[in-house]
Recover the amino acids of this structure.
């Protein structure tokens, strides 16, 4: 099972930007995704990227978030722009479908 280490979260004001990174312990070939989790809710995919870098986004992040990957570095990124308070959550990366092993996630807090 792969392991993932997420980083890059933080506290930003509305309209700000963050760049999340996820380093995997093994090859990330295949579909990779960034997930978010709100307290008391299940994780949900917000962005995904295939091995050929085809991307997909949920509606509420389209035009604001960009997912990318560097297969040589086993790393997936999530550029988050124009952040909104409703983007506040813990963000995780994993394969799609997800492996059973999750990283610790990275907290994103958007508030004025």
């Amino acid at each position: 099972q792969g392991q993932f280490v997420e980083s890059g979260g933080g506290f930003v004001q509305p309209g700000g930007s963050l760049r999340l990174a996820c380093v995997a312990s093994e090859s990330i070939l295949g579909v990779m995704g960034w997930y978010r989790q709100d307290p008391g809710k299940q994780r949900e995919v917000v962005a995904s990227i295939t091995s050929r870098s085809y991307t997909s986004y949920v509606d509420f992040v389209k035009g604001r978030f960009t997912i990318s990957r560097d297969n040589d570095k086993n790393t997936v990124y999530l550029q988050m722009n124009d952040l909104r308070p409703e983007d506040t959550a813990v963000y995780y990366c994993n394969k799609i479908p997800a492996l059973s092993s999750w990283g610790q996630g990275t907290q994103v807090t958007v508030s004025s």
